[in-house]
Design a protein that fits this description.
This is Pectinesterase. This protein is of the alpha/beta class. About 40% of the residues lie in helices and about 20% in strands. The protein has three domains: about 190 residues, Invertase/pectin methylesterase inhibitor family protein (Butyryl-CoA Dehydrogenase, subunit A, domain 3, Up-down Bundle); about 250 residues, Pectate Lyase C-like (3 Solenoid), CATH 2.160.20.10; about 90 residues, no CATH class. Helix 15 runs antiparallel to helix 16. Bound molecules: 2-acetamido-2-deoxy-beta-D-glucopyranose (NAG) (9 copies). The site of one 2-acetamido-2-deoxy-beta-D-glucopyranose has 2 residues, from loops.
Amino acid sequence: MASSNILKFCLLLSAISLSRTWALNSSSHMKYSQNSSSIGSICKTTPYPDVCFDSLKLSIMINISIEISPNINTFLLYTLQIAIFESEQLSNLLLDAGNSDNIIENQTGTIQDCQELQQITMSCLQRSVSLIQDDAPIKQRKLADAITYLSAALTNKNTCLEGLDSATGPLLPTLLSSIDYTYMYVSNALSILSSQKSHNKRRLMDMGAPTWISKKSKRRARTLKSEYDPSRVLTVAADGTGNFTTITDAINFAPNNSSDRTHIYVKQGIYEENVEIPSYKQNIFLHGDGTDATKITGNRSVGDGWTTFRSATLAVSGNGFLAQDIYIENNAGAKKHQAVALRVNADFVALYRCSIIGYENTLYVHSFRQFYRECDIRGTIDFIFGNAAVVFQGCKIISRFLTSSQFTVITAQSRDSPDEDTGISIQNCSIVAEEDLQSNSIRVKSYLGRPGREYSRTVYLESYITNFIDPTGWMQGPNNDDEGSKTLYYGEYDNDGPGSSTDGRVSWPGFMIFLSTSCQKRLQKAFAKPLERSEGHLNPQMMMKDNKSPPNLAGSVMYLQGDNEGRSYPTYSDHVQVIDSISQQLNQAYKSIEVEAMTAMRRLEFAVELGFDRVVLRVT
Ligand SMILES: *[C@@H]1O[C@H](CO)[C@@H](O)[C@H](O)[C@H]1NC(C)=O
Ligand SMILES: *[C@@H]1O[C@H](CO)[C@@H](O)[C@H](O)[C@H]1NC(C)=O
Ligand SMILES: *[C@@H]1O[C@H](CO)[C@@H](O)[C@H](O)[C@H]1NC(C)=O
Ligand SMILES: *[C@@H]1O[C@H](CO)[C@@H](O)[C@H](O)[C@H]1NC(C)=O
Ligand SMILES: *[C@@H]1O[C@H](CO)[C@@H](O)[C@H](O)[C@H]1NC(C)=O
Ligand SMILES: *[C@@H]1O[C@H](CO)[C@@H](O)[C@H](O)[C@H]1NC(C)=O
Ligand SMILES: *[C@@H]1O[C@H](CO)[C@@H](O)[C@H](O)[C@H]1NC(C)=O
Ligand SMILES: *[C@@H]1O[C@H](CO)[C@@H](O)[C@H](O)[C@H]1NC(C)=O
Ligand SMILES: *[C@@H]1O[C@H](CO)[C@@H](O)[C@H](O)[C@H]1NC(C)=O
């Protein structure tokens, strides 16, 4: 049975290439069996309906199981398999592109970026397949993961195209069309997946108790504890007193594809290196002696010919990365345009008490799920940008003066489709300016954000905003089109400080959903109960187990106050429940905020899972 399926599949794949040409043409003359028509109607809503219809027709022609028992899962799998097949062709093309003069880069790193991103896309596709396989209907939790992976894959596409934009060479047209073709299937798969997403908030509860109180997580916490062994910590010291003198050497030494955490302690010192953590170096934990002591600096920039992606001083593609007490800087200077200090395109990444310092495009939250707690982030324009699902908590976000520019802007979130699940969520942060910007804030306008792409999503919640922010708050995208602005979503909720008034905010049609004061009051009231009960949302307070021993974010046990005494406390699902019941009373305008808040909570959940030292849910 299995082998005959494989055989069918091989037939199918060979048919795909043959069918390409006509497949793109013949969509208008489709006939479906009745049982395929529900899939057909889903096809209609995908970004590339023709491609979807054609693969549907093809699948029927080749008579894989879809015909026998049409279901959305098999069709989804099928779409993903085509994407994987095409993706392999694309990877081969990219290898060719790296040879001789097939592609001539204008920005250093273009092809390398594409190659690495393509590898990540491949693994995203494969992981999505393994999540979906044999699981119908797909569980919401797995669905969320798969949506994350495919969103990341689409972000990879865009980043690769950005580099190729200025490239030349004979292979370029073939390469571009292969990228287009491959990612049509990825887009469609994501769209089908996202159509399966439950819009009923109650379903979120089906995900069950937060993992941090689940047995599994307790077991994991114990493992983490027993795993911690100071003699196994790799020490980097610029002065030669450690195992390595550069961080790069330590990363190279770290085991490949490890599911155990690798501790790398970076002693105080200045490390002038571009550190790359490739996707096969997983679960690295980098900790320093503090942001005034352990510094990683670099100076690559777009101005000096690098791609934005490759300009990063610290570049993280390995999942499960953690960092604490480190200063990361790109010191290319204000005149060199984009110059990234930290780029993260890896899943389940958390940074704690780090400084991320630069000018333009300082922090590239490229893709996947990320969490930043009590970090300082400093820059001029679009200095938090990218397409991750990212939460900032308790961070200090500092805008800097740029002499050559009439404006500064904090975020440039670049979500590209309604199906992705990405966005920037800034909670309990302070939004401030360096002195020279503050004193020039009449002349130089500063904004909370502007769109990187059409479906840009950014929310500021419960943060303190000083008055250097222009009353309009948000800046239009470079295309200045109101059309795109209908698909954006920017929100502000319960912020404080002289720059937080939403009275003068932009009001382009469909562009912003701002809560009127009365709405805010109602929402505040609605949130009041859970807020009081837990001092904010599920606010983990991270405490060092022992300030003297090496900081061990990941090395010790998670702890829930109240757990020991057997007291009950509001859990994650309590929150969801409360919000859920409130949601029915609220109108459309603030539903999105709730989603954000809930998403924020879910993301905290993974931060906790990652092993932040102690997590205390304060209950009063
Ligand atoms: C596809 O359609 C275009 C225009 O409709 C036509 O010129 C072309 O010949 C068609 N190709 C095939 C393979 O049918
Ligand atoms: C569709 O599938 C159902 C059960 O899977 C079957 O009873 C029905 O006859 C099928 N309809 C057609 C038109 O094939
Ligand atoms: C399609 O699959 C069914 C069930 O496996 C089989 O009975 C039928 O002959 C197949 N049709 C074709 C055209 O291969
Ligand atoms: C190549 O890069 C230079 C600067 O690095 C830029 O001036 C030029 O326009 C670029 N060429 C293309 C084709 O984009
Ligand atoms: C690193 O240095 C420590 C202390 O000198 C030592 O115990 C440990 O074995 C070294 N690790 C490696 C991998 O060399
Ligand atoms: C890890 O993989 C890289 C790339 O394949 C290889 O060069 C390196 O030697 C491997 N390192 C270890 C520690 O296995
Ligand atoms: C890491 O694991 C992946 C998937 O299992 C494999 O494809 C890759 O070759 C491994 N990389 C290294 C350097 O071992
Ligand atoms: C960039 O940093 C390197 C060391 O990392 C240094 O050799 C080089 O001179 C610096 N370039 C500039 C323009 O500052
Ligand atoms: C908010 O952030 C600050 C750090 O800026 C932190 O001290 C405080 O505990 C946070 N508040 C909550 C409720 O998490």
